[in-house]
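Worked example (supplementary).
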Amino acid sequence: MQQYFVKGRADELITITDKDTLKHMFSVMRLVDGDEVVLVFEDGIKRLARVVSSSQHQLEMVQELKDDVELPVQVTIASGFPKGDKLEFVAQKATELGASGIWAYPADWSVVKWDGKKLVKKVEKLEKIAQGAAEQSKRNRVPEIQLFEKKTDFLAQLVTFDKVFIAYEESAKAGELAALARELQIVETGQKILFIFGPEGGISPKEIEAFEQAGGISVGLGPRILRTETAPLYALSAVSYAVEMNISN
Amino acid sequence: MQQYFVKGRADELITITDKDTLKHMFSVMRLVDGDEVVLVFEDGIKRLARVVSSSQHQLEMVQELKDDVELPVQVTIASGFPKGDKLEFVAQKATELGASGIWAYPADWSVVKWDGKKLVKKVEKLEKIAQGAAEQSKRNRVPEIQLFEKKTDFLAQLVTFDKVFIAYEESAKAGELAALARELQIVETGQKILFIFGPEGGISPKEIEAFEQAGGISVGLGPRILRTETAPLYALSAVSYAVEMNISN
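After joint prediction of all chains, the assembly is encoded as:
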């Protein structure tokens, strides 16, 4: 069944006002009175809702649904600003794979320079992509998008996480493949995890030092060299496999 | 260091003849006499090689390298023909993530129809993408590309695998999340694994039946709905995590 995210609280009767949602509901899906859809408000609970007036864009709540597909840990990924539209790709795929947050920061070796105006537009675009992907993958939450203009602001956020992992190619080359699995085995439900990725050129030694000083742990993501936009997908899949599917956990 | 795949055997002195490789070596990278690169022949062994004549396109072998980044199990992914250029995307990412084979078959619910001529062109394109991705991710092998014109030919291949997994959305919905982990814990080095994915519309009940009759096991890939092009990336990451990084294995 079609699912939509709606801002605000779940009242008994609600009126849809968001333009994109309206368009999808009544122009694309052509919903008529009596049709049912799933609405997800900011509380993350899915609710079966019924169209009571397609002309007034009103829906009434039918019942709460128990369905919760969120990862039991909150995973934020942070990419060094990558080239082109790679961040758009990462936002879509990371949303499908369960990310709570999709962040990016200006890394030492980022080729692109995004200033304030560009960043605002980029955030808007990524938010739309994340919402669309969250609806399609039937998430209970839309990931939070945050692009940092200054690296110091990003660094200041590291203390808010229970675990910070640095995806570091050199860790993989050094044969250190068990670090991530070792850490994921002791992660607890509800904990906040951050994965930091470099841009195409990688993470600079100075950045590694700063991330490690803030408590970050360098981990390898398998022995093969992954592109900057592929590494977050591996990390999220590994977390899902470790905490959602692994019978020994 | 730049890596190239070369067809044939690793003789002491070789002449590069492949046009794309020549172009990259001598026009893009502008290699000169004495420069070193890594060459990988069909035996999958990486060799340090040195340019002895850039005008004659000759290189000599310097030494074998021990570096082997192949997955300890051989994983082939098989997608129901998807729309647009999704298979190109899957080929690139699955190569990075260690796939041995990248296959596709005409599924009941595939929207696209690819005939013989189109398939030949598609295979050529995918082979180039896989080779480029294998070079970039420093693989020892280029994944084998195979597109089946008839589903019966694909079905006939299932017996050649030690394990066949069917990525089935309904398994995830039914809360069956441990099946894949349970199976991956008993997989042995060198075994051949096949993952079957549906196209956008999913796998038809008739196909599920045929795959299961051929020994396929339905597995979920986490509780979230993954797009057809994202599911193979999850599967490959999970295999890597289970067999390469999980300390309990």
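Two points are worth noting when inspecting this output. Helices of chain B lie at 19-28, 86-96, 116-136, 151-157, 169-173, 179-184, 205-213, 231-245. Chain B has two domains: 3-64, 74-245.
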